[in-house]
Structure formats: structure tokens, C-alpha cells
Amino acid sequence: MSLIHGGDINGYIMQYGKPPLDFSANINPFGIPHGVKAAVAAAIENADAYPDPLCRKLVNAISQFEGVPSDCIFCGNGAADIIFRIALALKPRLALIAAPTFAEYEQAADTVGCKIKLHHLKAENDFMLTNSIIEQIDSNTDIVFICNPNNPTGQTADVELVKAIADKCRECAAVLVLDECFADFLDEPLKYTFKPYLNGYGNLIILKAFTKLYGMAGIRLGYCLCSNIDITQQLKKAGQPWAVSSLAQAAGIAALKENDYVKTTRELIKAERKYLYESFCKLGIKVIGSQANYIFFKTDAEDLDSILKDYGILIRSCSNYHGLDNTYYRIAVRTHGENQQLIAAIKHITEIHR
């Protein structure tokens, strides 16, 4: 399976000689907040010194923001860094992954020679996670990866289902890695987060990232929450000590203060997600899930991603996800003008190929 992701702007520029309108990466269309830019600029003055390997100021800020003790927090070079550290630290022998989903779970597990067991989400159920996954968790399962909301489908699992999965994992001595990196884009994020149950599950790791919500993909900063201090200590030992730069630490501290930015972002995403959904429906395109800041859809127009490149637009083909083909695509929710440009291009393409 190819591990190419969205957001390959550089590859597009090399081919077309100009930057695209990028719908392929699920990044906040507002870009990096001004407060974060200012914090990074100020932090450059001290960039000649090594960063704090323990990220103490950042961890304290996250602790206050999340309402979680600081010793239950570990920061990394993006959520992907933490996923790989989890594999390196815990060295699981068998991983259960609900697919299609984020490719890094499988890649990280494969790095340590871990056997992969896929729980295939069904197209006839719109790729919803159901309690059927619980039957696949047994005493041989070392680790389970769940993405909520799931990438690329945008489907969510309710707290009751996640709790049942966590209970079965605990019963079987398996670690549950719950990726909530896109939860902040939900209309009701508090309704879906499993954070209130953190203290009750020593086998639970919740992943979070600054990448998407704060438009900080190039800065690389993520963190995890885990009440099992032994696990957080193992994560610290599983990689290099200076994984989080001083600039990233300053950016994270500043980002957590951007309440108005987050509020405005959620308002935009909610309105524009509705606009895109309705626009796709008018074009006869099936939209699946899509409760976060991206739209997952199926169309008869094969190679739509390649055709849209000639319109200056990048979208994410989902053909390299398990169980999907080149009729499935994912687009980020962007500003209204940008979304209108995308819809106009797709409408033109569908009319030509009718």
C-alpha cells in the first residue's frame, strides 16, 4: 500500500510550475494564527540553545488546557512521531486496526515487525465503526488503533462504543490508541472525546495534534494523554530527546490561547461543510460521513484527482487506503470562495464526461 499523503504541494509545483489550491490536506484554511506567528518569531532569539527535552512549559500549558495532570502528557514531533514511539516503546506483536484509516498506524507497527490484523469497515454501512470490532479483540491482541473521527471517512464512534472497546482491550491486556486529532472540528467535540474516562483506563492513549486545527503542519507538534505513567516514560525513551524544537514549543503555548480563532474556525467549517455537502448532492455525488473538516465522497468519475490538477486543484484520492478504490476521494473544507471554485470545476468535469 502506497504511503503517499495529501498536501504534496511541492510535487505539484515541480510539475506545473505554480502552487495549487490544496484540498488534499485537512488543514485549517485560515492558516497559522497571528499570535502563533509572533510567538515563533520571538522564539528565534533563543534558538541557539537546545530546546527543553521535557517540554515543561508546553506540558504545563496543555495540562491547564486539557484539565489533565502534567505527568499524563507527552509531546512529540507531530502525532505521527508519537505513533511511531508507541510502536517502538511497546513493541506489540499483533495490532488490530479498523480500516480504511490513517496509514501511519500500520506503518509504525510494521516497523517493529508487528503482525497487522485489519477490521474492515463496510461500504454498505457507510464505513461506520460498529461493535463487531470487539469480537476481534482477544488475548493475542497487543494494541488496537481507532481514529475518531476517522480519517478519511469522517465517521464518528459514540462514547458508548469506544467505552466497550476500551473495556475489552483492558480485559485482554491490550493498549487502545485513540486518535482524536480531528475531534476539535466536530460540531460537539465534548460529546465524542473519551478524555473524561482517561483515569479509568491505564491501557488508553489519546492522540492530539496542533497540525490541523491551528494550521501548523510544517511546525510539527502533537501530544498524547495517558494516565499510565510507565507508558509515558517509555515514550520519552523511545526517540531522540530533542524531538520538539523550541519554536514548536513556543507555537504550541501560543496556540492554546487562540480561543477566538478556534471559535471562528468551527463556525466556518460547520457552514462550509454544509455548503459542500449540499453542492455534492446536487451533482449526484454520494457523500459519506464527513462530520469533521473534510468531505469523503464516492463518484463515478475515475481519476478525478488527476483531472482536477489541470484546473489547479489538488484533492486526495483514497485509492491507496485498504478497501477503497479510485472512485473514493477526500477534500478539505476550505473558505467559501475556494469551495465554490472546487464545485465549479467538478461540475464542469461531470458535464464534459456525461
Compose a concise summary of this entry.
The chain has 354 residues and is of the alpha/beta class. 37% of the residues lie in helices and 16% in strands.
Tags for this entry?
354 residues; alpha/beta; Aspartate Aminotransferase, domain 1; Aspartate Aminotransferase, domain 2; 2 domains; seven-stranded mixed β-sheet; four-stranded antiparallel β-sheet; 12 helices; 37% helix; 16% strand; globular
Written description of the protein model:
This protein is of the alpha/beta class. The chain has two domains: 9-31 and 259-352, Aspartate Aminotransferase, domain 1 (Alpha-Beta Complex), CATH 3.90.1150; 34-255, 3-Layer(aba) Sandwich (Aspartate Aminotransferase, domain 2). 37% of the residues lie in helices and 16% in strands. It has helices at 9-16, 34-43, 56-66, 79-90, 104-111, 159-171, 189-192, 229-237, 246-255, 259-282, 304-309, 336-352; strands at 21-22, 73-76, 94-99, 115-120, 143-147, 175-179, 204-209, 222-225, 286-288, 294-298, 313-314, 316-317, 328-332. Strands 2-8-7-6-5-3-4 form a seven-stranded mixed sheet, sandwiched between helices. A four-stranded antiparallel sheet has the order 9-10-13-12, covered by helices on one side. Helix 7 (189-192) links the parallel strand 6 and strand 7 (204-209). Helix 2 packs antiparallel against helix 9, helix 4 (79-90) packs parallel to helix 5 and helix 4 crosses helix 8 (229-237). The longest helix has 24 residues, at 259-282. It is globular. The model has no long low-confidence stretch (mean pLDDT 96).
